[in-house]
Amino acid sequence: MPRLPRTGLVLALLSSAATAQGQDEPLVLDPDVSFDPSVDFGFDDDIFAGAFDEEEQSATEAWFEDFTIRISQSTSGQINNHSIDLGAFGKFPKQADLETNRLQFNVRYQNPIAPGWLIQGSMWYRVYWNQDYEYTTNQDSIDTEGQLNDLFIQRSSGAHSFKLGRQTVVWGETAGNSVLDIINNSEFRDFTIIDIEDARLSQAMLVWDFFGTDNSSSLSTFVNLYPEFNPAPVRGSPLFFDPGFNLPDYSRDGKILLEAGTQWKKSFEGSDIAVMAAYLYENQLRYDPPLPGSADARPDINDFLLLGFSANRAIGKLLLNFDLAFSHNILADSFAFPGTSSLSTPVNLRKDQIGTSFGFEYAIDNEQNVSLGIQAQTLLDAEEGLQPGQTLTNDGVFGSWLVRYSNAMRNGDLTLSATLQGDLAAESLLVFLGVDYTLDDNWSLSSQIISISAKSGSFLTVFDEDIRLGTTLTYSF
User: Fold this and answer.
1) 68-369 under CATH 2.40.160, yes or no
2) Of 409, 382, 411, the residue nearest 396 (C-alpha)
3) How far is CA 312 from CA 219, 221, 269, in A?
4) 362: Cβ–Cβ under 8 A, 6 or more apart, which residues?
5) Cα–Cα nearest to 470, from 169, 76, 128
6) Residues of CATH 2.40.160 domain(s) within the chain?
7) What are 3-51's pLDDT values in tens digits?
8) For residue range 160-213, what is the model confidence (pLDDT) as tens digits?
9) How far apart are CA 211 and CA 218, in angstroms?
């Protein structure tokens, strides 16, 4: 409780005493002095105005409020000793090993600088400690790295909105497993990230959104000013494999590459539909072997056309979703797992592909929800153009499925989650179990365990029987 000024305290005591004795009788302080409470001493009403208010924020403090900062220390590794049976190549022993040990700073900035204007950006900066694979790759020395996640300026006026800068565009309805979620490139370095939402990278884009008069329809158009491609796995990371030569980035050599697309969306009571078309480059590079005398593979890019349709339908606590994609002139043997590199094979054909993803999201109650997403794709006229004895890696119907479950308890301070992911051929299964606990307004703790099983022939074969355990302590302000 704030301390009253001495004058105010005296007046308060006098008024209280006067009330106790009655308003019609003067209060006697001294035998020779009387005091009438009705006397006006001439004080203004606002003489003490603001006396107890907190000091106004400084300009620096007000500016700092636009930032959200998160500092986290995370550690994870493969914890069980076992061996992998690689068939004709024999058994490969795997020992328990610490894989990641890093301190990360996440900074987010959002500021409505003026009516109709917004600036938003986010980035991370990491310090790789002892036994992190980045530390080992850096010749047993502490290494650092930073990345700009997004940075754009937005102008909204009437029915129009423009965004310019690094950002992401999401078209699919099926969360985490959509055939339409292929506009932005992605990066999977290790098993601390397994969902496309977390691995998605921003790109330099101009996005224009136009909303109908009743806001039930919208038209969204993007132009990617500098298309990028999935980075090759970082040397030393669990997903890295050494082909015996370098996998460089694509050299543009002065070429101007652009991507563009448009989506029209319409909302009805309980449902949405959308149609879309885009001219894109495949996010995953194809590498041809090096020329004689060179240590660098030759990256190959491929442009294609995408036509899509998406829809959702809400039925009580259930949300159904559906995506459909037709891709014209894609590489026939693109690698199925994002973020990994694919080397060209004798089959180097461009073909058409049709794919669909569908599933549901169900709110069991206010604390629990579950979702399912299934993705299936197939090449059209798959055998056309093949030489005798040639086969395709992506033969028949291929794809994946994803199941998520989340349960928030203790007023949201404790969250239990589970993610299961596998392929349609039932050759691999990845199980992710997580616990997130909020200690107070600033501190939180999370732990996760990942189990992988894979059959011979799966691209996850080398991770069969792996069990990974990780923990992260986070301070946010």
Assistant:
1) yes
2) 382
3) 18, 21, 11
4) 317, 318, 319, 369, 370, 371
5) 76
6) 68-369
7) 433 333 333 333 333 333 443 434 334 444 444 444 444 444 444 444 4
8) 999 999 999 999 999 888 999 999 999 888 887 777 777 899 999 999 999 998
9) 4
